[in-house]
Amino acid sequence: MKRKLPSEEFLRKDQLIRKTQFDTVWYFELSDIAAWLGEDLDGVETVVLPIMDEGETVLKKCTSLTDVRRFLRDKGVID
Q1: Which has the closest alpha carbon to 31: 9, 3, 62?
Q2: Which of 2, 22, 35, 65 is 20 to 30 A from 78 in CA distance terms?
């Protein structure tokens, strides 16, 4: 059974997922969003961006919800 992804607004409110905004696009830390979704996102398009982690700025691989949607659609996980 194919599933739906949560909205970007919902993910932005989730405190367990580290995120950052670059220009007008929200990016989510790759391992956080993969764990939250319970999906292997190895191969999704990513960019390295600074993210606050426990009071420090660190560089992390991030992805947009649009890229996650495209990736999972290509894998046949979502419509």
Answers
A1: 62
A2: 22
Own/partner contacts of 25-30, CB < 8 Å, gap of 24 or more, are 25/64, 25/66, 26/64, 26/65, 27/62, 27/63, 27/64, 28/62, 28/63, 28/64, 28/65, 28/68, 29/60, 29/61, 29/62, 30/60, 30/61, 30/62, 30/63
What's the pTM value of the predicted model, to 2 decimals?
Answer: 0.88
Strand partners, 62: 29, 47
Which tens digit of pLDDT belongs to each residue from 33-55? 999 999 999 999 999 999 988 89
